[in-house]
Write a structure and sequence with these properties.
GO molecular function: DNA-binding transcription factor activity; transcription cis-regulatory region binding
Protein name: TetR/AcrR family transcriptional regulator
Shape: elongated
CATH topology of the largest domain: Tetracycline Repressor, domain 2
Strand content: under 5%
Pfam family, one: TetR_C_11
Organism: Streptomyces coryli
Keywords: DNA-binding, Transcription, Transcription regulation
Length: 197
């Protein structure tokens, strides 16, 4: 009589364990950069097996993108202050807390995407596109409230304006992006552009 073995169950990591792992990945990125980061180093730092890491994520690009996604605050996505200006300001309040600490990290990743298309694709899929959808929901609420026209020409360039503000200050002024800067930029540039006919 043949003995039937039960299939091995592959359970997911607990949320606490995932949080610890993501923090370790970001710490390693800050220490050595994307190029030098290895799955071996992540496994050693987190006391996890490489098999577990590859089972949960396809590889280093997906793990890094997921770690960055989980490090971002999510409070703003459900925020509705009643105005586009208030919603954008709330977005900044939720997002600038760790901006200075992660400045060099983001610079390194911005360089890495040029030579690692798989990293670029993972960041777009797991981080950039979901954030753009949340931002579009904020803009759509403004359209529904009558604050801006649905066909406002600048609407298609909102993400570009916001990303440009971040990269320009770092590049031109060598200063971190802070809440005051983002609020002034939004009031002077973003909102007038969105409200223009």
């Amino acid at each position: 009589m043949a003995i039937t073995q039960e299939p091995v169950r592959r359970s997911r990591l607990s949320s606490e364990r995932e949080h610890e792992l993501f923090e370790a990945v970001l710490d390693l990125l800050r220490e050595s950069g994307y190029e030098s980061l290895t799955m071996d180093a992540i496994a050693a730092r987190t006391h996890a097996s490489k098999a577990t890491l590859y089972r949960q994520w396809k590889g280093k690009p997906q793990l890094v993108a997921t770690a960055l996604k989980h490090a971002k605050p999510h409070r703003w996505e459900d925020c509705d202050t009643g105005s586009l200006r208030g919603d954008l300001h709330e977005l900044y309040r939720c997002g600038v807390d760790d901006a200075d600490r992660d400045r060099s990290l983001m610079r390194g990743l911005a360089q890495a995407v040029h030579s690692h298309p798989e990293l670029h694709e993972a960041l777009r899929e797991l981080l950039i596109h979901p954030e753009m959808q949340k931002l579009e929901a904020v803009v759509q609420r403004a359209v529904d409230r009558g604050e801006i026209a649905s066909d406002a020409p600048a609407r298609d360039f909102l993400v570009h304006m916001l990303m440009g503000a971040v990269t320009a200050r770092d590049l031109i002024e060598d200063e971190p992006v802070d809440l005051d800067y983002l609020i002034r930029y939004t009031d002077a540039v973003v909102l007038p552009a969105l409200r223009a006919a």
